[in-house]
């Protein structure tokens, strides 16, 4: 028996939004996980290498500060961190594009995601990655300019308590605005609009449904934390044990912690940790996508507009038979 389709544009209560999120993931979880393996696992493999390299040389620096005076060691530390951050950005782009691209197809296709292959999905994925990159770049520039202005004002103000209080309020306002801004990503990928239209729409819908967005993000953050924590726990245990072994006076313990076997196990666990983090992100992105559909329907009546469009298309496809009206 086929499940009832989970409409994107539908006004829902808080519990219904959570149910729709988990029902959607339950229905399409196998396809999502398969695409994650194809697209995110390679990113996780490289990301784990960068993270382990960075943590290894950070640990060496903590034990022996003279390590950073060596050019090669410092370069390895910076390179590891750079690879880790680059892969994290790419992974976030791919993950968000995957989730919202599939949500768009699920909403548009009569057969939902049944029979969808990675090859047929590739144009939607590339489109989503391009839009995610553009939106991320615009938001980063705007936030950087805003923070830079605050920093310059704080330096110019000096010890003026009045201006300092205004700056604190501006910083709080920035945090408050980031909640509605989270709707800009699903709006930009799911809809055929410009980046500025997506941000404008996100603010317009977001401030009117601010509490709902915050509640969904809070619950999904807990889910992400549980999944990420469970996948990262073995790696953290191995890392803590390694740090303890390396600073111990026992040569056997230090040698085991630095052995290739220990390093390989840590690397594999780092891959699991990175991949688990992106699996958690799927829950967050999906929840925000459902929240966007709720806000768009509640404020703009998107479900009614789509029903009207579908009715007009159905009407256009029905050719009146004049023979029926002869008599």
UniProtKB/TrEMBL annotation:
Highest taxon of the lineage: Bacteria
Sorted UniProt keywords: Membrane, Transmembrane, Transmembrane helix
Keyword Transmembrane helix attached: yes
Transmembrane segments: 35-54, 74-102, 132-157, 163-189, 210-237, 257-283
Organism of this sequence: Xylanibacter caecicola
Lineage start: Bacteria, Pseudomonadati, Bacteroidota, Bacteroidia, Bacteroidales
Protein name: Transmembrane protein
């Amino acid at each position: 028996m086929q499940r009832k389709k989970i409409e994107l544009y539908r006004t829902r209560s808080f519990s219904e939004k959570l149910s729709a999120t988990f029902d959607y993931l339950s229905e399409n979880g196998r396809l999502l996980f398969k695409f994650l393996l194809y697209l995110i696992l390679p990113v996780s493999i490289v990301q784990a290498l960068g993270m382990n390299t960075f943590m290894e040389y950070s640990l060496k620096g903590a034990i022996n500060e003279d390590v950073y005076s060596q050019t090669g060691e410092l370069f390895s530390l910076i390179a590891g961190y750079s690879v880790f951050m680059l892969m994290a950005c790419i992974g976030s782009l791919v993950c968000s594009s995957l989730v919202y691209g599939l949500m768009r197809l699920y909403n548009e296709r009569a057969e939902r995601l049944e029979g969808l292959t990675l090859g047929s999905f590739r144009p939607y994925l590339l489109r989503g990655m391009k839009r995610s990159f553009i939106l991320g770049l615009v938001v980063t520039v705007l936030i950087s300019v805003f923070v830079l202005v605050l920093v310059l004002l704080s330096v110019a103000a000096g010890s003026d308590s009045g201006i300092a209080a205004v700056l604190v309020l501006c910083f709080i306002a920035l945090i408050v605005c980031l909640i509605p801004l989270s709707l800009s990503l699903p709006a930009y990928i799911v809809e055929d609009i410009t980046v500025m239209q997506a941000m404008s729409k996100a603010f317009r819908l977001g401030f009117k449904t601010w509490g709902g967005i915050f509640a969904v993000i809070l619950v999904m953050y807990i889910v992400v934390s549980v999944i990420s924590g469970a996948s990262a726990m073995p790696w953290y245990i191995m890392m803590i044990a390694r740090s303890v072994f390396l600073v111990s006076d026992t040569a056997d313990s230090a040698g085991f912690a630095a052995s290739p076997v220990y390093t390989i196990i840590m690397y594999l666990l780092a891959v699991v940790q990175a991949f688990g983090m992106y699996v958690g992100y799927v829950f967050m992105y999906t929840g925000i996508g459902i929240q966007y559909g709720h806000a768009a329907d509640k404020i703009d009546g998107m479900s009614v507009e789509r029903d009207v469009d579908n009715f007009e298309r159905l009407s256009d496809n029905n050719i009146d038979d004049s023979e029926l009206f002869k008599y």
